[in-house]
Amino acid sequence: MKRNATILIAIAIVAIALCACNIDATDGIYSEVASSTESKDVVMISYLGTYGDEHYYLADDGVYRNGSSSPLIANSSSKIIRNASLDESTGNILILLQDRSTLKAQIHECTAADDYAIGSPINDSNYTGLLVNGVFFNESGIYYSPSATSVVPDVKVQYYLETEEYAFFSVKDSSNAYKHYVIKDGSAIISDVEGSSTTYVGFQPLSDSTYVLISYDSSKSVFNGYQFTSAGVGDKWFQLSSSIPYAYASQAASFCFTNDSKTYMAIKCRNYFDIIDVTDTAATGISVKPLSTGFATDIRTTEVTNVKKTATDNVFIAGTYDSLLYQIDMSASEIENSSAKQL
To answer: Whose CA, among 29, 90, 184, 266, lies 20 to 30 Å from 6?
Structure first.
């Protein structure tokens, strides 16, 4: 009898603990346990874009069309797709394919006409990285398109950030000096700007001449925003309300939208999204407002890998690490009434 009573007490304690964890199923231990046990066929790496009416994304086992249970272009036992880029006008896909044994990585073009079969590489060169917007690079420089057109020669890439058709590169030139470049549609629209060893973790274009860079201030444990132009990196422009979660994504996820004739930047933070009024680039000390309603609530608990605009104004598609694709709609008259839905 005493042994049975002890067992019943132990069961009751476990039940109480489980109930306590379920007070808020969107946060905390319960959420993490639920997410870790949920069945997932794929893990999102990046959203590639749209061809026709189909959405494409790169997962940990290959390139997918949204809604498909098997990859369109799959990894093999000997080779893995490290990065991919979709040409939204033709449906053709560039992949950076790495040999698991030799670690050699080459660019291949998989065409819609050939049912996305992996053929020969575009050339014999070895490449380090391929961006979603079709820019790729190695130790000799930066290139674009299946023809490997040289964009910035004779530089060594230190790191890169990308948003939509734009890419920010921090490089070292032949004299070992830091330089910054911005590349759009295969052309360097900002070139040879004096840089530094600072590593930025966020990049958002405001126009073809003005950008926002995000960096971490370790002395104060905060993330700050700076304007970047052809003149270089400016003074601190704003401070984010909380930290940036990018354990899986390579950079902070952000996008720009318009509301009531103003331009706003939205950036994913640890606590929901920060909304920043960037209409007046000459303004100083601009305000940062955390958004805890609307679309920010809908994708609060997942890490956003990247965001791309659609053909519809103020509507975006976000790739997420654990929930695949979301459509973000910022067209509501009030930002707080924006929404996001899983596709």
So the answer is: 29
Question: What is d(CA 181, CA 183) in angstroms, rounded to the nearest whole number?
Answer: 6
SS3 206: coil
Distant-in-sequence, close-in-space partners of 302: CB < 8 Å, separation ≥ 6:
320, 321, 322, 323
Q: Give the pair of three-digit tokens for residue 329.
A: 């709609």
Inter-helix orientation angle 2-21/28-37, to 10°: 90
Q: What are the φ/ψ torsions at residue 36 (nearest 5 degrees)?
A: -75, -25
Residue 140 in tokens:
């000799």
Domain boundaries, the chain: 1-38, 236-343
Write the DSSP symbol of residue 278: -
- Residue 295 and residue 275 in contact, taking contact as beta carbons nearer than 8 Å: no
Per-residue pLDDT of the chain (343 residues; tens, 9 = 90+): 444 444 444 434 334 343 333 333 323 222 222 233 333 455 778 999 999 999 999 999 999 999 888 999 999 999 999 999 999 999 999 999 999 998 899 999 999 999 999 999 999 999 999 999 999 999 999 999 999 999 999 999 999 999 999 999 999 999 999 999 999 999 999 999 999 999 999 999 999 999 999 999 999 999 999 999 999 999 999 999 988 876 555 688 999 999 999 999 999 998 789 999 999 999 987 889 999 999 999 888 788 899 999 999 999 999 988 778 999 999 999 999 999 999 8
Report the run of H or E that residue 290 belongs to, with start and end.
strand 288-291
Q: Are 201 and 217 in contact (CB under 8 A)?
A: no
Token pair 């420089």: residue: 141
CA dist 45 and 47 (Å) reads 7
CA-CA-CA-CA dihedral for 251, 184, 168, 235, to nearest 10: -110
Question: Both tokens of residue 105?
Answer: 């990585």
Say if residue 132 is exposed, middle or buried (CB neighbours under 10 Å; 0-12, 13-18, 19+): buried
